TrEMBL record:
<dbReference type="GO" id="GO:0060070">
    <property type="term" value="P:canonical Wnt signaling pathway"/>
</dbReference>
<protein>
    <submittedName>
        <fullName>Uncharacterized protein</fullName>
    </submittedName>
</protein>
<dbReference type="InterPro" id="IPR011042">
    <property type="entry name" value="6-blade_b-propeller_TolB-like"/>
</dbReference>
<dbReference type="InterPro" id="IPR000033">
    <property type="entry name" value="LDLR_classB_rpt"/>
</dbReference>
<dbReference type="InterPro" id="IPR050778">
    <property type="entry name" value="Cueball_EGF_LRP_Nidogen"/>
</dbReference>
<dbReference type="GO" id="GO:0017147">
    <property type="term" value="F:Wnt-protein binding"/>
</dbReference>
<dbReference type="GO" id="GO:0042813">
    <property type="term" value="F:Wnt receptor activity"/>
</dbReference>
<dbReference type="GO" id="GO:0005886">
    <property type="term" value="C:plasma membrane"/>
</dbReference>
Length: 202
């Protein structure tokens, strides 16, 4: 339990907003615009890349071994191979204003992200190479976090203040599942054989 308690405190203190698990290591971003790696066995933290810009989420494509993330103030999405001897960033696609949340559908090979164009929050999707950009949902109230249950074809989104909702991947119909009474910056899905559970941090 000690390592889990320490890690939880570390993530909260550094305003960590998204995680990617890969084997016995954990990738995470911090408020200070770094991508870091935590080794569960040695408990060592390694800075993989100093981004120099704000990143609120990262996700991992397990088949092509690429990490994807949106740059909040640069209005784009980047990727890099992981694991690798050195980190080399590659540009994927330009986004609308302030892309915050990002999720990878490793089954259908799509990238989903949230963005806020003035008062018109949107969910957008494209292929892994940045082509075929499509708006999936719009007129949302500050969508910030997005997670996918690709196996069961569900997409979960946090509109940062009013609600958490879900919708079928490929559908535009939204279903509210919780009212949010405080800012929610993180959410993940606990996959089980019988049911899925949402976990969020405020």
């Amino acid at each position: 339990m000690e390592v889990y308690n320490w890690l939880y405190e570390y993530l909260i203190l550094n305003f960590t907003l998204s995680l990617v698990c890969a084997q016995s290591k954990l990738l995470f971003t911090t408020q200070h615009a770094s991508i870091k790696e935590f080794d569960f066995q040695t408990r060592q933290v390694t800075v993989l890349y100093e981004l120099g810009t704000t990143v609120y989420s990262i996700d991992y494509h397990y088949k092509n071994k690429q990490v994807y993330f949106p740059r909040y103030f640069n209005n784009d999405i980047m990727r890099f191979r992981y694991p690798a001897h050195s980190i080399e960033l590659h540009y994927i696609v330009s986004t609308g204003s302030k892309p915050a949340g990002l999720a990878i559908d490793s089954i259908r090979n799509h990238i989903y992200w949230t963005e806020n164009v003035l008062s018109n929050g949107r969910i957008v999707r494209c292929d892994l190479d940045g082509s075929n950009v499509n708006v999936i949902a719009q007129s949302l109230d500050y969508p910030f976090v997005i997670r996918l249950d690709a196996i069961n074809s569900w997409m979960y989104v946090v509109e940062r203040l009013p609600k958490i909702y879900r919708q079928r991947i490929g559908s535009s119909k939204q279903e509210k599942i919780e009212t949010v009474f405080m800012e929610t910056a993180c959410m993940d899905i606990e996959i089980r054989t019988t049911q899925n559970r949402l976990r969020r941090n405020c």
